[in-house]
Amino acid sequence: MKKTFTLFLFILVSNSLFSQIIWERDFKMAQAKALEKDQVMLVDFWAVWCGPCKKMDAQLWNTPEINQYSSKFVPLQVDIDRFKDLARKYNITSIPRVMLMTADGEVIWEKNGYVLPDTYLEIFDQLPESLGGLNKTLLEGAEKQNDPVFLTEVALMFQNIGENEAKGEVKREFINKSSYYFKEVQKNSSDENVSIKAELNQYFNEAIKGNYSKALKKLNKIELSNDHVELNQFKSFAIAYCYKSDGDIDSYAKQRALIENQDYLKRLDQLVKEEI
Question: Which residues does the UniProt record annotate as the domain Thioredoxin (predicted)?
Protein backbone atom coordinates (compact mmCIF):
# COMPACT_ATOMS: atom_id res chain seq x y z
CA MET A 1 0.00 0.00 0.00
CA LYS A 2 2.84 2.35 0.94
CA LYS A 3 4.66 1.57 -2.33
CA THR A 4 1.49 2.20 -4.32
CA PHE A 5 0.97 5.57 -2.65
CA THR A 6 4.62 6.52 -3.23
CA LEU A 7 4.32 5.60 -6.91
CA PHE A 8 1.11 7.60 -7.22
CA LEU A 9 2.77 10.61 -5.58
CA PHE A 10 5.77 10.31 -7.91
CA ILE A 11 3.54 10.25 -10.99
CA LEU A 12 1.52 13.20 -9.70
CA VAL A 13 4.62 15.30 -9.05
CA SER A 14 6.19 14.29 -12.38
CA ASN A 15 3.09 15.27 -14.33
CA SER A 16 2.96 18.56 -12.50
CA LEU A 17 6.59 19.34 -13.32
CA PHE A 18 6.31 18.38 -16.97
CA SER A 19 3.12 20.42 -17.33
CA GLN A 20 4.84 23.68 -16.50
CA ILE A 21 6.69 26.12 -18.67
CA ILE A 22 10.23 26.73 -17.43
CA TRP A 23 10.36 30.51 -17.57
CA GLU A 24 13.40 32.64 -18.18
CA ARG A 25 13.47 35.65 -15.85
CA ASP A 26 16.22 37.68 -17.51
CA PHE A 27 15.50 39.47 -20.80
CA LYS A 28 19.06 39.21 -22.13
CA MET A 29 19.22 35.51 -21.31
CA ALA A 30 15.96 34.94 -23.17
CA GLN A 31 17.30 36.93 -26.12
CA ALA A 32 20.41 34.77 -26.24
CA LYS A 33 18.34 31.58 -26.20
CA ALA A 34 15.96 32.89 -28.86
CA LEU A 35 18.96 33.70 -31.04
CA GLU A 36 20.49 30.28 -30.45
CA LYS A 37 17.23 28.42 -31.15
CA ASP A 38 16.16 30.83 -33.91
CA GLN A 39 12.70 31.18 -32.39
CA VAL A 40 10.33 33.83 -31.09
CA MET A 41 10.26 34.86 -27.46
CA LEU A 42 6.99 34.42 -25.57
CA VAL A 43 6.95 37.28 -23.06
CA ASP A 44 4.43 37.30 -20.21
CA PHE A 45 4.27 40.58 -18.28
CA TRP A 46 2.85 39.85 -14.83
CA ALA A 47 3.08 40.60 -11.08
CA VAL A 48 2.74 38.53 -7.91
CA TRP A 49 -0.37 40.48 -6.84
CA CYS A 50 -2.15 40.04 -10.20
CA GLY A 51 -5.25 37.84 -9.88
CA PRO A 52 -5.82 37.31 -13.64
CA CYS A 53 -2.12 36.39 -13.95
CA LYS A 54 -2.56 33.62 -11.38
CA LYS A 55 -5.61 32.46 -13.30
CA MET A 56 -3.49 32.28 -16.47
CA ASP A 57 -0.89 30.23 -14.58
CA ALA A 58 -3.49 27.73 -13.43
CA GLN A 59 -5.46 27.49 -16.67
CA LEU A 60 -2.69 27.79 -19.28
CA TRP A 61 0.96 27.97 -18.29
CA ASN A 62 0.81 25.08 -15.80
CA THR A 63 -1.24 22.66 -17.90
CA PRO A 64 -0.28 19.67 -20.08
CA GLU A 65 -1.85 21.34 -23.14
CA ILE A 66 0.94 23.91 -23.34
CA ASN A 67 3.63 21.24 -23.66
CA GLN A 68 2.94 20.42 -27.30
CA TYR A 69 3.76 24.01 -28.28
CA SER A 70 6.50 24.95 -25.81
CA SER A 71 9.23 23.83 -28.22
CA LYS A 72 8.25 26.67 -30.58
CA PHE A 73 9.26 29.58 -28.36
CA VAL A 74 11.57 30.80 -25.61
CA PRO A 75 9.39 31.73 -22.59
CA LEU A 76 10.19 34.84 -20.57
CA GLN A 77 8.16 36.03 -17.59
CA VAL A 78 8.67 39.68 -16.65
CA ASP A 79 7.71 40.91 -13.19
CA ILE A 80 6.66 44.51 -13.88
CA ASP A 81 7.50 45.56 -10.30
CA ARG A 82 11.09 44.31 -10.60
CA PHE A 83 11.73 45.31 -14.21
CA LYS A 84 10.03 48.68 -14.41
CA ASP A 85 12.20 49.97 -17.26
CA LEU A 86 11.22 47.02 -19.44
CA ALA A 87 7.54 47.46 -18.57
CA ARG A 88 7.83 51.14 -19.44
CA LYS A 89 9.59 50.39 -22.73
CA TYR A 90 6.68 48.21 -23.86
CA ASN A 91 4.05 50.55 -22.42
CA ILE A 92 2.64 47.99 -20.01
CA THR A 93 -0.31 49.68 -18.29
CA SER A 94 -2.31 46.57 -17.43
CA ILE A 95 -1.58 42.88 -16.95
CA PRO A 96 -1.44 40.11 -17.87
CA ARG A 97 -0.02 41.11 -21.23
CA VAL A 98 1.47 38.48 -23.49
CA MET A 99 3.71 39.24 -26.45
CA LEU A 100 5.53 37.31 -29.14
CA MET A 101 8.83 38.98 -30.04
CA THR A 102 11.87 38.47 -32.18
CA ALA A 103 15.20 38.22 -30.36
CA ASP A 104 15.86 41.94 -30.85
CA GLY A 105 12.64 42.73 -28.96
CA GLU A 106 10.41 43.56 -31.93
CA VAL A 107 6.77 42.74 -31.12
CA ILE A 108 5.05 40.49 -33.64
CA TRP A 109 1.82 39.75 -31.77
CA GLU A 110 0.30 40.68 -28.42
CA LYS A 111 -2.77 40.17 -26.27
CA ASN A 112 -3.81 42.25 -23.29
CA GLY A 113 -5.76 41.07 -20.24
CA TYR A 114 -7.03 37.64 -19.31
CA VAL A 115 -8.01 35.60 -22.36
CA LEU A 116 -9.35 32.05 -22.56
CA PRO A 117 -6.50 29.50 -22.87
CA ASP A 118 -7.77 28.16 -26.21
CA THR A 119 -7.03 31.54 -27.80
CA TYR A 120 -3.37 31.24 -26.89
CA LEU A 121 -3.12 27.57 -27.83
CA GLU A 122 -4.49 28.40 -31.27
CA ILE A 123 -1.88 31.15 -31.69
CA PHE A 124 0.94 28.87 -30.54
CA ASP A 125 -0.18 26.24 -33.02
CA GLN A 126 0.22 28.84 -35.80
CA LEU A 127 3.83 29.66 -34.87
CA PRO A 128 6.71 28.59 -37.13
CA GLU A 129 9.19 26.10 -35.70
CA SER A 130 12.07 28.34 -36.78
CA LEU A 131 12.56 31.92 -37.97
CA GLY A 132 14.98 31.01 -40.74
CA GLY A 133 17.83 33.18 -39.46
CA LEU A 134 15.67 36.27 -38.90
CA ASN A 135 16.83 36.81 -35.31
CA LYS A 136 20.50 36.82 -36.31
CA THR A 137 19.85 39.21 -39.19
CA LEU A 138 17.89 41.65 -37.02
CA LEU A 139 20.48 41.70 -34.24
CA GLU A 140 23.42 42.09 -36.61
CA GLY A 141 21.63 44.85 -38.50
CA ALA A 142 20.82 47.01 -35.49
CA GLU A 143 22.90 49.86 -36.96
CA LYS A 144 21.52 49.47 -40.50
CA GLN A 145 17.96 50.70 -39.99
CA ASN A 146 18.25 53.12 -42.94
CA ASP A 147 20.02 50.72 -45.29
CA PRO A 148 17.67 49.65 -48.14
CA VAL A 149 19.63 46.42 -48.68
CA PHE A 150 19.24 45.41 -45.03
CA LEU A 151 15.59 46.51 -44.93
CA THR A 152 14.81 44.50 -48.07
CA GLU A 153 16.49 41.41 -46.61
CA VAL A 154 14.42 41.66 -43.42
CA ALA A 155 11.21 42.34 -45.36
CA LEU A 156 11.76 39.24 -47.49
CA MET A 157 12.53 37.10 -44.43
CA PHE A 158 9.30 38.16 -42.71
CA GLN A 159 7.47 37.53 -45.97
CA ASN A 160 8.96 34.07 -46.38
CA ILE A 161 7.93 33.05 -42.87
CA GLY A 162 4.41 34.37 -43.40
CA GLU A 163 4.13 32.80 -46.82
CA ASN A 164 5.54 29.37 -46.01
CA GLU A 165 5.81 28.71 -42.27
CA ALA A 166 3.28 30.56 -40.11
CA LYS A 167 -0.48 30.12 -40.19
CA GLY A 168 -3.66 32.06 -39.46
CA GLU A 169 -3.40 35.22 -37.38
CA VAL A 170 0.34 34.76 -36.85
CA LYS A 171 0.82 34.51 -40.63
CA ARG A 172 -0.93 37.87 -41.06
CA GLU A 173 1.28 39.50 -38.43
CA PHE A 174 4.47 38.31 -40.11
CA ILE A 175 3.19 39.60 -43.44
CA ASN A 176 2.28 42.94 -41.84
CA LYS A 177 5.85 43.19 -40.56
CA SER A 178 7.11 42.44 -44.05
CA SER A 179 5.01 45.26 -45.50
CA TYR A 180 6.28 47.64 -42.83
CA TYR A 181 9.88 46.95 -43.85
CA PHE A 182 9.07 47.26 -47.56
CA LYS A 183 7.61 50.71 -46.81
CA GLU A 184 10.87 51.57 -45.04
CA VAL A 185 12.74 50.47 -48.16
CA GLN A 186 10.72 52.95 -50.22
CA LYS A 187 11.47 55.74 -47.75
CA ASN A 188 15.21 55.10 -47.73
CA SER A 189 16.04 54.03 -51.28
CA SER A 190 16.98 56.37 -54.12
CA ASP A 191 16.96 53.48 -56.61
CA GLU A 192 13.72 53.51 -58.62
CA ASN A 193 13.78 49.76 -59.31
CA VAL A 194 14.28 48.94 -55.64
CA SER A 195 11.40 51.23 -54.66
CA ILE A 196 9.06 49.76 -57.27
CA LYS A 197 9.91 46.20 -56.22
CA ALA A 198 9.20 47.14 -52.60
CA GLU A 199 5.82 48.57 -53.63
CA LEU A 200 4.95 45.46 -55.66
CA ASN A 201 5.83 43.29 -52.68
CA GLN A 202 3.49 45.25 -50.44
CA TYR A 203 0.61 44.51 -52.80
CA PHE A 204 1.66 40.88 -53.07
CA ASN A 205 1.57 40.76 -49.26
CA GLU A 206 -2.06 41.87 -49.40
CA ALA A 207 -2.74 38.88 -51.62
CA ILE A 208 -1.00 36.53 -49.17
CA LYS A 209 -3.38 37.83 -46.49
CA GLY A 210 -6.32 36.99 -48.75
CA ASN A 211 -7.11 40.50 -50.01
CA TYR A 212 -6.97 39.45 -53.67
CA SER A 213 -9.22 42.13 -55.18
CA LYS A 214 -7.42 44.91 -53.35
CA ALA A 215 -4.04 43.55 -54.41
CA LEU A 216 -5.13 43.22 -58.05
CA LYS A 217 -6.33 46.82 -58.22
CA LYS A 218 -3.04 48.07 -56.82
CA LEU A 219 -0.87 45.83 -59.00
CA ASN A 220 -2.70 46.71 -62.21
CA LYS A 221 -2.21 50.43 -61.55
CA ILE A 222 1.57 50.07 -61.69
CA GLU A 223 2.74 50.66 -65.26
CA LEU A 224 6.15 49.30 -66.19
CA SER A 225 8.09 49.65 -69.42
CA ASN A 226 9.41 46.57 -71.22
CA ASP A 227 12.87 47.48 -69.96
CA HIS A 228 11.82 46.51 -66.43
CA VAL A 229 12.12 42.80 -67.21
CA GLU A 230 12.50 41.43 -63.67
CA LEU A 231 9.86 43.77 -62.24
CA ASN A 232 7.40 42.75 -64.95
CA GLN A 233 8.06 39.10 -64.16
CA PHE A 234 7.36 39.64 -60.47
CA LYS A 235 4.25 41.66 -61.27
CA SER A 236 2.91 38.87 -63.50
CA PHE A 237 3.69 36.34 -60.76
CA ALA A 238 1.80 38.38 -58.15
CA ILE A 239 -1.18 39.02 -60.45
CA ALA A 240 -1.35 35.35 -61.47
CA TYR A 241 -1.45 34.35 -57.80
CA CYS A 242 -4.31 36.79 -57.17
CA TYR A 243 -6.35 35.48 -60.10
CA LYS A 244 -5.83 31.83 -59.16
CA SER A 245 -6.64 32.40 -55.50
CA ASP A 246 -9.72 34.41 -56.45
CA GLY A 247 -10.96 31.65 -58.76
CA ASP A 248 -10.42 33.40 -62.12
CA ILE A 249 -8.76 30.48 -63.91
CA ASP A 250 -8.72 32.00 -67.42
CA SER A 251 -7.00 35.21 -66.28
CA TYR A 252 -4.62 33.13 -64.17
CA ALA A 253 -3.60 31.06 -67.21
CA LYS A 254 -2.95 34.21 -69.29
CA GLN A 255 -0.78 35.77 -66.59
CA ARG A 256 1.08 32.55 -65.92
CA ALA A 257 1.97 32.30 -69.60
CA LEU A 258 3.81 35.62 -69.28
CA ILE A 259 6.15 34.29 -66.59
CA GLU A 260 9.50 33.03 -67.87
CA ASN A 261 11.39 33.29 -64.60
CA GLN A 262 11.64 29.70 -63.32
CA ASP A 263 11.97 30.75 -59.69
CA TYR A 264 8.69 32.66 -59.86
CA LEU A 265 6.99 29.75 -61.62
CA LYS A 266 8.12 27.33 -58.91
CA ARG A 267 7.04 29.74 -56.20
CA LEU A 268 3.65 30.24 -57.85
CA ASP A 269 3.10 26.50 -58.22
CA GLN A 270 3.98 25.98 -54.56
CA LEU A 271 1.58 28.69 -53.41
CA VAL A 272 -1.23 27.36 -55.58
CA LYS A 273 -0.56 23.79 -54.44
CA GLU A 274 -0.79 24.78 -50.77
CA GLU A 275 -4.20 26.38 -51.32
CA ILE A 276 -5.74 23.33 -53.03
Answer: 1-129
